[in-house]
Amino acid sequence: MSGNSDPLTPRAKLAVTAGKAAAAVSRAAGRGSGSVIGGRVALKLDPDLLARLATHLDVILVSATNGKTTTTRLIAEALRAAGPVVSNALGANMPAGITSALAGGSDAKYAVIEVDEKYLSGVARDTDPKCIALLNLSRDQLDRAAETRMMAEHWREGLAGSKAVVVANADDPLVVWAASSSANVMWVAAGQMWKDDAWSCPSCGGVMQRPGDDWFCGECGFRRPTPTWALSGDHVLDPHGSAWPIHLQLPGRANKANAASSAAVAAVFGVPPQVALERMYQVQAVAGRYDVVQFMQRDLRLLLAKNPAGWLETFSLIDPPPTPVILSVNARGADGTDTSWLWDVDYTRLTGHPIFVLGDRKLDLAVRLEVANQHFQVCENLDQAVQLAPPGRIEVIANYTAFQDLRRRVGN
């Protein structure tokens, strides 16, 4: 699909130029990467710009509640084996940020695009993707995104009639229900650690039966599809039954699941699993996630967790007690202003860890930890928490804007 013909009209070229100028001004003012403001300016001048920029690209969209930034990065690395890739690697995943990313990819063959769950249908309509990866759906940003069943319905309606190959997690009933409206689905057994948003059937509302790794609705017959790709321990099983070893620098079971889905996507474009997985090994950190940084002569590992499912996965990969843990929670616009989700997180998993609490909503978190019978100290800032922490590497877990605050403080 890649070609040399220029799909851009004079108006579109003007929009791209203006967007890049706005982004440059934003960066010079120290207001971040400028990708969002640049995209907004460009779309204001040409509302059809995103569709125009996508016409010469093989587009892959990635959406989920958790793991989409990392999976986008893994797919992008894998597809570079087959040609140049443009991607919104820093996670600006709404139309403005996506438009900015594509504006910088005039020579690319592939566009690997992370998409916010709410915007998936619209972005798919504009970009005519060849492949859509759907990883999971769970509660997140409760004040903004409504409940998960509504999001799955939104996806299901948006995917109906799509010509894209949909690579979908067979272990998440909400994802399966959303993807089932598509004509061409490739099911991946990627696992589902967090099940608390999938006990009722998305099709009929009945109670879901979950024997072992299987699931089905006893009332309407909606059930787990047979996967053709699967995560099995430290291997990816392909449709032929061959097992390919996963070697990642990224930690945890969740990232192996991301790699399995990424290998399935890469195969759609002719990249063999062995090649795809070898290239994924290059990824050490993703937009600061999993980075180990030096701060005040201590090693800090930075971990992002934005919602109950993400916190559960993160607790499974931190070093064992008595490793000190710093927790930071904000509730700004980008996080969602409703912190009631804190009560859905099982903080008893931190028993034995010295815990230090900070962030805009440190007192909300402190109350939750108190009820969970955890030992903790409330701190004014990162510096104080690091000073109080006992020796050893410190695990730092933060939600979205708290994570960005911490990255700025440590110069990452």
UniProtKB/TrEMBL annotation:
Domain Lipid II isoglutaminyl synthase (glutamine-hydrolyzing) subunit MurT C-terminal: 304-403
Top-level class of the enzyme under EC nomenclature: ligase
InterPro entries noted in UniProt: Lipid_II_synth_MurT (IPR043703), Mur-like_cat_sf (IPR036565), Mur_ligase_cen (IPR013221), MurT_C (IPR013564)
Domain Mur ligase central: 65-182
Reactions mediated catalytically: beta-D-GlcNAc-(1->4)-Mur2Ac(oyl-L-Ala-gamma-D-Glu-L-Lys-D-Ala-D-Ala)-di-trans,octa-cis-undecaprenyl diphosphate + L-glutamine + ATP + H2O = beta-D-GlcNAc-(1->4)-Mur2Ac(oyl-L-Ala-D-isoglutaminyl-L-Lys-D-Ala-D-Ala)-di-trans,octa-cis-undecaprenyl diphosphate + L-glutamate + ADP + phosphate + H(+); beta-D-GlcNAc-(1->4)-Mur2Ac(oyl-L-Ala-gamma-D-O-P-Glu-L-Lys-D-Ala-D-Ala)-di-trans,octa-cis-undecaprenyl diphosphate + NH4(+) = beta-D-GlcNAc-(1->4)-Mur2Ac(oyl-L-Ala-D-isoglutaminyl-L-Lys-D-Ala-D-Ala)-di-trans,octa-cis-undecaprenyl diphosphate + phosphate + H(+); beta-D-GlcNAc-(1->4)-Mur2Ac(oyl-L-Ala-gamma-D-Glu-L-Lys-D-Ala-D-Ala)-di-trans,octa-cis-undecaprenyl diphosphate + ATP = beta-D-GlcNAc-(1->4)-Mur2Ac(oyl-L-Ala-gamma-D-O-P-Glu-L-Lys-D-Ala-D-Ala)-di-trans,octa-cis-undecaprenyl diphosphate + ADP
Listed pathway(s): Cell wall biogenesis; peptidoglycan biosynthesis
Protein EC: 6.3.5.13
Gene Ontology MF annotations: acid-amino acid ligase activity; ATP binding; carbon-nitrogen ligase activity on lipid II; zinc ion binding
Active site: residue positions: 338
Residues binding Zn(2+): 201, 204, 217, 220
Pfam families named in the record: Mur_ligase_M (PF08245), MurT_C (PF08353)
Highest taxon listed in the record's lineage: Bacteria
Biological process, per Gene Ontology: cell wall organization; peptidoglycan biosynthetic process; regulation of cell shape
The entry's keywords: ATP-binding, Cell shape, Cell wall biogenesis/degradation, Ligase, Metal-binding, Nucleotide-binding, Peptidoglycan synthesis, Zinc
Task performed by this protein: The lipid II isoglutaminyl synthase complex catalyzes the formation of alpha-D-isoglutamine in the cell wall lipid II stem peptide. The MurT subunit catalyzes the ATP-dependent amidation of D-glutamate residue of lipid II, converting it to an isoglutamine residue.
Quaternary organization: Forms a heterodimer with GatD.
Family: Belongs to the MurCDEF family. MurT subfamily.
Protein name stated in the entry: Lipid II isoglutaminyl synthase (glutamine-hydrolyzing) subunit MurT
